[in-house]
Amino acid sequence: MNHRPPVVRRTARSLLIVAAVASTALAGAVPAEAAARPALTLEASRSTVTVYRYTDDGDTFMAGDLGVYVVADRKQAFEVRSERKDYGSAIRATLVRKGHDRPLPVPADFTGLTDFSRTTFTNAKGKVVASSTATFCPNVYQPVRRTPEAPATSPYPEGCYGNPYSLGAVWGVQAGYAASLSGYDGYEGDGSLPDLAPGTYTATTAVTSAYRLALRIPDAQAQATVKVTVVKGEDDECLEAGCRWAATTRASAKRAAAAGVEKAPARLTGKKAKPSGPLPDLRSLPAWGIVADGHYLNFSATVWNAGPGRLVVDGFRDSKNADLMNAYQYFFTASGKQKGYAPVGGMEWDARSQHQHWHFKDFARYRLVAADQKTPVVDSGKEAFCLANTDAVDYTVKGASWKPENTDLSTACGDRQALGVREVLDTGSGDTYEQFREGQAFDLTTVKNGTYSIEVTANPDTVLYERSTKNNVSLRQVAIGGSKNHRTVKVAKVGVIDEPPVEMEEDLHR
Q1: What's the mean pLDDT in 121-126?
Q2: Which string of b and e fits 111-145 if b means at least 16 CB within 10 Å?
Q3: Which of 19, 77, 271, 316 has an alpha carbon within 20 to 30 A of 371's alpha carbon?
């Protein structure tokens, strides 16, 4: 719960596909300073709550909030850094405290603190009718002040999400703030509320023992109890509660088949200027979400910015062609002051009904290459891109922006009437394109069975200025088999990362 809500171009499940690594408890005894203030406490906003049970096309939908909050210390923020040194290593989580950083239980992935709390429901007779553990994402979307003297804003990211190959995350609750631990409505199995028949229950939410020890929370402050009344909801109320929306937007949507890529206009060129200030560092992650579909090979590809500089590209209308913009990359000082720019090619208007926005050219290239990892076999038809911060890849790198603004197409790509467009890839974030569309997925019609690699190249024509181009290429080995129209693919794990199967469902497009 409390993960990043779905947006038009990205889906919750595709954002939360990550490594499955077993959680382990902390070893060692509590140090002498155990009497120090706890990093977090639990608090219930009310002693009694009412929740509603709906049914919608055979699905159960529980709507409501237990009103249980995690409250940070009023003098020090609760901050966790989670990172892994490589894909062969487990994720390590560290509680950041002034002079006293502490290790935390190993999280399973980048969705938050695994098995952080357990909620138990008992009926009027005292019998336990439901019990489950939950992952806690400190980066809720609406943290609230708990004390009047708390800071005006919170610096922490919104949502705990990422890419299968994310490297680092920052989670936190601002000093004096509270974050909901139970505020998520959902179908059974997806949210914090189990399917409960109408009636009265007692819900007790408690921080699990491993985290109580690590965060030094006294037992009395590590749990909250609430009386819960479950009421049967009416059908019209279900619509207002968003039952159908919740079902459809949580689906793991993928690309639908579409028309081939239109011929691209000629590239715009300009005299290059010497860059200055901190530059971005574009890197490609291994291709992921790989699946064979008929005679196509579908995959997702992510290019991210390791910084320390932001990638900022502005487009300006071309005076001779209404479907083109001249593109310029901007450079900034370490403090963020603009200090220069240089032409970096162009942008083109994509008029197809499934796009209808401006694409920057030459951002990335996708190819299927032979076993020698050099000889091209098939190219993806994707050749122009709308830049946006879709995935948190590593928010622990220098200069990382924890709250990137342009996280979906509606904020990044402009409309037909736009006089200019700004497209940004912030430090620490990645831009993912899912190649599930005809003209973008690899066409395997003429490809023989055998071993190949999916090559993802950032900045393939080096039109963008960046700190290094030595890390722009990634290769993911695949074994292609099957028959002409029923191809199969086997993909090896990358380190400890073993991706779940990919489901093909309709989604909006890029």
Answers
A1: 94
A2: bbbbbbbbbbbeeeeeeeeeeeebbbbbbbeebee
A3: 19
